């Protein structure tokens, strides 16, 4: 059974949050220093061009990696799946059930999420994750050609719809279920156990092992071109705005005149 420990996850979340704040503060100070020393042009270039570009490259998430691989990997039939990194799809088949946390339903696996509910002075509600766990037993994925056993250690549930949600006091409780006969798509590693049993498990090199409802993957693939186009469009206009901010302009005789900008080298006036 794949289960995350509550206390360790809380500590990890708090640690990650602390370091994110430290890094964010350091970046803010660096930007402020560049703006004061180098002037508006350097700040504009960093804030409007460099940071958005680096964000698209380095903002890597498991979900992003999953869908990036899904775009390039062919979906293999279970009978012909090759050993190694692979993508398979089919119906989830229960071997031994687990009992869901809230509704006490039999299922293959679930995510249980607890969030703190907070309100600001204006009455706007925000939700902050307090605890989550993923519990899943081994199961089969079956297609028209056969079935393969899935070993769920480190399996990540992606884009599952909430099965049940309730609010008690200042807490919101949500569960997401992997149900019998749910059509799913998985990306991971096809391998063989010591007993020569074919299995599907985590791919260590790419560090990917995810499962998503097949319907959600189909919807994402339909929207993918629009998402990419929107990203390029937004980044194009960010560059245009940055160029406008960098270019000195004057209004003379009802005409806009563009001037030359003399770049200032950062810290050039710093005394030694």
Would you write up a description of this structure?
With 272 residues, this protein is of the alpha+beta class. The chain has a single domain, classed as OB fold (Dihydrolipoamide Acetyltransferase, E2P), CATH 2.40.50. It is built from 4 helices and 16 strands. The strands form 4 sheets. The protein has a 5-stranded mixed barrel with strand order 2-7-8-13-12. The protein has a 4-stranded antiparallel sheet with strand order 6-5-11-10. Helix 1 packs antiparallel against helix 2 and helix 2 runs antiparallel to helix 4.
User: What is the name of the CATH superfamily?
Assistant: Nucleic acid-binding proteins
Q: What structural class do the secondary elements suggest?
A: alpha+beta
Overall geometry = extended
Gyration radius, rounded: 25 Å
* Contiguous helical run count: 4
CATH architecture: Beta Barrel
The number of distinct structural domains comes to 1
| CATH class categorisation | Mainly Beta
List SSEs in N-to-C order.
Answer: HHHEEEEEEEEEEEEEEHEE
Mean pLDDT: 81
Approximate strand percentage: 25-35%
List the uncertain runs: 3-15
Tell me the CATH topology: OB fold (Dihydrolipoamide Acetyltransferase, E2P)
Distance between the termini: 63 Å
Sheet of most strands: 5 strands, mixed, barrel
Helix fraction by DSSP (H/I, runs of at least 4) = 25-40%
Secondary structure: number of strands: 16
Order of neighbouring strands in the sheet with most strands: 2-7-8-13-12
Protein name: RING-type E3 ubiquitin transferase
Keywords: Membrane, Transmembrane, Transmembrane helix
Transmembrane segments: 18-36, 42-59, 232-251
Organism: Phocoenobacter skyensis
């Amino acid at each position: 059974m794949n289960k995350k420990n509550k206390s360790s996850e809380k500590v990890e979340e708090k640690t990650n949050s602390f370091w994110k704040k430290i890094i964010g503060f350091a970046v803010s100070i660096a930007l402020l220093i560049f703006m004061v020393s180098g002037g508006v042009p350097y700040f504009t270039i960093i804030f409007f061009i460099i940071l958005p570009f680096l964000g698209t490259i380095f903002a890597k998430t498991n979900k992003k990696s999953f869908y990036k691989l899904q775009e390039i990997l062919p979906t293999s039939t279970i009978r012909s799946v090759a050993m190694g990194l692979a993508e398979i799809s089919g119906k989830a088949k229960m071997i031994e059930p687990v009992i869901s946390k809230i509704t006490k339903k039999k299922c293959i696996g679930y995510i249980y999420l607890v969030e703190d509910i907070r309100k600001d002075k204006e009455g706007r509600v925000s939700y902050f994750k307090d605890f989550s766990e993923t519990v899943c037993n081994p199961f089969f994925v079956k297609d028209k050609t056969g079935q393969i056993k899935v070993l769920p250690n480190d399996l990540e549930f992606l884009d599952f719809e909430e099965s049940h949600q309730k609010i008690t006091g200042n807490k919101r409780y949500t569960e997401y279920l992997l149900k019998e006969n749910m059509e799913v798509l998985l990306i991971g590693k096809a391998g063989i156990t010591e007993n020569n049993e074919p299995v599907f498990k985590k791919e260590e090199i790419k560090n990917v092992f995810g499962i998503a409802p097949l319907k959600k993957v189909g919807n994402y693939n339909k929207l993918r071109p629009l998402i990419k186009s929107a990203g390029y469009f937004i980044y194009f206009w960010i560059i245009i705005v940055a160029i406008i901010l960098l270019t000195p302009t004057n209004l003379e005789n009802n005409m806009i005149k563009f001037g030359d900008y003399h770049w200032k080298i950062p810290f050039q006036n710093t005394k030694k």
